[in-house]
Amino acid sequence: xxxxxxxxxxxxxxxxxxxxxxxxxxxxxxxxxxxxxxxxxxxxxxxxxxxxxxxxxxxxxxxxxxxxxxxxxxxxxxxxxxxxxxxxxxxxxxxxxxxxxxxxxxxxxxxxxxxxxxxxxxxxxxxxxxxxxxxxxxxxxxxxxxxxxxxxxxxxxxxxxxxxxxxxxxxxxxxxxxxxxxxxxxxxxxxxxxxxxxxxxxxxxxxxxxxxxxxxxxxxxxxxxxxxxxxxxxxxxxxxxxxxxxxxxxxxxxxxxxxxxxxxxxxxxxxxxxxxxxxxxxxxxxxxxxxxxxxxxxxxxxxxxxxxxxxxxxxxxxxxxxxxxxxxxxxxxxxxxxxxxxxxxxxx
Length: 348
Ligand SMILES: [Zn+2]
Description:
alpha+beta, 3 domains, 6-stranded mixed sheet, 12 helices, 15 strands, 19% strand, binds zinc ion
């Protein structure tokens, strides 16, 4: 019996209602993770590949966060009774594709990740927010497109849509954020980065008087997350990672410079964090080891920033490129295409 047959049998044993796909290369089960999160799956949305091509993986078509390499640990977390998992079989699979399993060490941690989504319901007044974004980027983007980027038009809609039963600011603040700000849901869906879209002509409470305001969806979440434009990556291919300071910088890089390419490219707004911290996050937490980094700096960054990055990463086998907007009068990339003249050089 091949190891794939053994795994297939074992999965049928662990999940009695499992089905095979036509080619018998995958086993489909009702997603246990969806069930755990309160949306019971009756349509066998989780596909487990048996490892005919690369290492076995599990992948839920209802929720793209329910996926990963099928390690012993991962399989144990999918079943109600982990004792039933055949450790010998899982170890055998592991030694069969060592290279892929070795990398998974870096991706196990999934702390602080929530299942929230942006609300697809658009109100009449959201048109102003759409126009604000489009004007800054010099583009005409539809609501559908902007929802793909996890842009939040209404905080109250998002809270309702996800059945979140608590708020972490008072109602008056929530209403202000709802009216005068446009939001960006972070990659672990734990917080929203809000940008004030008024021209300072509306007097707002002190606690939200900054241009950017963070809103945590739960009070006790350990990590805010970063604003990352959703894209699709194959961890085993080279991935280009683009880093810029603000949310509009990274949106402009994505649309105006990289042709909205969502394949094997990652776009991150670093917010108030350092480039070092975010690069480390990509390698250690996101598990991206085969990467090339592109930093889109603000022209007024402190003198020590780039030499520090150079020193930190010089011994790693990664390359880091610096992009500068040399268009006269512009200081960063958060502008339309006609105001960008991109100059690139290799830092590491
Ligand atoms: Zn699922």
